[in-house]
Design goal:
Blueprint (H helix, E strand, L loop, with lengths): L2 E6 H12 L7 E5 L1 H5 L3 H10 L5 E3 L2 H9 L6 E3 L6 H9 L2 E5 L2 H11 L6 E6 L11 H11 L5 E7 L8 H20 L6 E5 L1 H6 L7 E4 L22 E6 L2 E5 L4 E2 L5 E2 L4 E6 L18 H15 L8 E4 L2 E6 L7 E6 L9 E4 L12 E5 L2 E4 L8
Parallel strand pairs: 1-19, 2-3, 2-9, 3-4, 4-5, 5-6, 6-7, 7-8, 8-9
Antiparallel strand pairs: 1-10, 10-18, 11-14, 12-13, 14-17, 15-16, 16-17, 19-20
Length: 385
């Protein structure tokens, strides 16, 4: 095996304990394992969390939920994204998957399918309080609830919203108050709503009064704090490590140029190692959203400029043993070059830990689950190294 991802089971369990230690009695944990559990592997992550008592999961798309069901995950599941086909509604009903109702179109599809269906359907009403992605306003929510109440095989399990800027307490509080007003109006109209939820990982840490009946936690379980300052930080552990092996090693003289267009000039003789990891695997890829403000733009520009001049701390560095070494030259599609000083003992086949952003790691890279020295690949295969 020339590249693989190691997932530390005990780290996931530790992160879960940290989250649970800050949950009030009666607040349900909804473990968000969308996007392949943020790169950790959704099926095995769900199994690990289930063994520790987690009994509710959420994903973005119906296909993700169906994969979990096919793998034997029996806990309640919620799908965030609207399902836009009658067959999708039927699949959700057959597999006991909770759906989001975020528009009158969603409602009409449910009415169409449920009118002659024998299975039950669980739904959560999504309120848009400012994110602008999808969701209902107060008038629409009351209309949707009134019609859902007339469908005998549909159960309203929850109501929720997403904060647009959870790092801003004032903005989150404004959305929270709007959400609570709509939830209260629904209850005054006769709706019983067992599960009200607004808190993601940031809101969970910053605003305990917003925990309500449930919290949606994703990044904290993966060992990462959300962006921002917090008065208290959890004792999290990183479960994810992308590893590979050196496949080629040779000495090159001073003045050699590396990579396409010769973008890196070797100033001293050194060892040059090749690893079979490139941007196809997620190396050197970054999320390219528009800067949120001028300061954010300046930081991005500064990072690019400093990286161009190989400024310390701005280069990509891998780890071999207990030492780190830089990636030099342009990263190839499936390979990258490391520059290692002469005299350091390394060889072909040595293990290299590579800093891949976990959500960008290719899905076809094997995930190896490690617990107290025992490796398993999806619980079935012994690991090589």
């Amino acid at each position: 095996m020339d590249k693989w991802i190691e997932i530390d089971i005990s780290a996931i369990e530790q992160n879960l304990r940290e989250v649970q230690s800050r949950l009030e009695m009666g607040t349900r944990l909804i473990a968000v394992i969308k996007a392949n559990a943020y790169g950790q592997g959704a099926i095995e992550t769900a199994r690990i969390l289930s063994r520790q008592g987690v009994d509710f999961f959420a994903v973005s798309f119906l296909e993700e939920a169906l994969q979990l069901r096919q793998a034997g995950i029996q806990a309640p599941l919620l799908v965030f994204s609207p399902v836009i086909s009658p067959d999708g509604i039927r699949d959700a009903m057959k597999n006991r998957i909770g759906l989001t109702v975020a528009s009158t179109n969603d409602l009409e599809l449910i009415e169409e399918v449920c009118s002659d269906a024998v299975d039950d359907l669980t739904v959560h009403i999504k309120i848009d309080t400012g994110l602008g992605r999808f969701g209902l306003n107060q008038e629409q929510a009351l209309l949707v609830w009134g019609r859902l109440a007339n469908i005998s095989n549909v159960e309203l399990e929850g109501i929720y919203t997403h904060t647009a800027d959870p790092s801003s307490p004032a903005s989150a509080e404004k959305q929270f108050q709007q959400f609570m007003q709509i939830a209260d109006r629904l209850e005054q109209s006769g709706a019983t709503v067992p599960l009200r939820h607004i808190a993601n990982s940031t809101v969970f840490l910053r605003s305990p009064h917003m925990h309500l009946d449930g919290v949606r936690i994703g990044t904290l379980l993966t060992g990462q704090h959300p962006v921002g300052d917090f008065t208290q930080r959890l004792q999290l552990q990183e479960p994810f490590a992308f590893k590979t092996r050196i496949v080629s090693l040779r000495n090159l003289p001073q003045g050699s140029r590396l990579g396409y267009f010769g973008t890196y000039l070797m100033r001293t003789p050194a060892q040059v190692a090749v690893i079979p990891v490139g941007f196809h695997d997620g190396l050197a890829l970054e999320v390219a959203n528009k800067p949120i403000n001028l300061w954010d733009l300046l930081k991005k520009l500064a990072k690019i400029i400093l990286g161009y001049f190989d400024w310390p701390g701005q280069d990509i560095r891998v780890t071999i043993g207990d030492q780190s070494f830089p990636v030099r030259g342009k990263v190839f599609m499936q390979m990258a070059l490391l520059v290692i000083p002469l005299g350091i003992e390394i060889k072909v086949g040595d293990v290299v830990t590579v800093p891949i952003r976990k959500t960008l790691a290719a899905h076809d890279i094997p995930r190896i689950y490690l617990d107290k020295g025992t490796y398993s690949d999806q619980g079935n295969r012994a690991a090589d190294g």
